Amino acid sequence: MSAILITGGTGLLGSALTNTLKDKGHKITVLTRTQRTSQDNNVHYALWNVNEQTIDETAVASADYIIHLAGANVADKRWTSDRRKEIIESRTQSSALLVKALQRPNKVKAVISASAIGWYGPDENRSPKKKAFTEDMRADKEFLGTTCRLWEESIEPVIKAGKRLVKLRIGIVLSNDGGALPEFKKPVKFGIAGVLGSGKQIVSWIHIEDLCKMIIYALENESLQGVYNAVAPTPVRNKELTILLAQKMKGNFFVHMHVPAFALKVMMGQMSVEVLKSATVSSEKIRTAGFTFLYPSIESALDNLIQ
Question: What is this structure's pTM?
Fold first, then answer.
């Protein structure tokens, strides 16, 4: 049993991960901005304030591991200049606070930090020799690529503090409790499979159970360090995902239609570029490290999620 400190622990991934770790017998402390109480003896809350750079030092000192998930949701709002700044600083400043806290006496063995496949640009930017984006490739120069680069760089000083660091570049997370899947489901409930743009763009995804399992795998295996792509081994085209989802939910009682790219741009602004982007990302490195997926195919994932 270990004591694990989680940042971003009240979000979609953090909540699922807390439950998974608790079921495995670990003691969880979740850093929050507001005072909270827990009815569970294995889950506790501690205060931190990223803007003021304050943190409960006792929570850090008593942790065996830190799982760093904090960061403003990139899909919540339009990317105005203020929102872009908030997205970046919510990641870099929270990392800076952890780095500062780890300079004081502690027993933390490893830090597992979230990143995202936004690191990579569209498929057309990929080297012709590569079938998929791999961890050794440079960050894209657009907004999300820059955000991920700054995000990863901001947590790297923990290595100098003697901590093992694992960074997971997370793909599109499939869960019934939030994220992309409920949005994909909305039109299907009315019998419409809404294919985004051409539908040819590749989606690199991961089932939330596999993502939680991968984080725990990184936590428990001392041989893991550096960057790993957290995506399933079978990326899928947007049209294929959408049609398969509709079949699971509606059988043959649906029609599919394309949502034009220009309409997405009107609704979402610059964020639409990411929705329409094709990014084929490799999971070979984490699989070579011994990780096995519960849901390696999109069909197995949707079979589990659509019941």
Answer: 0.94
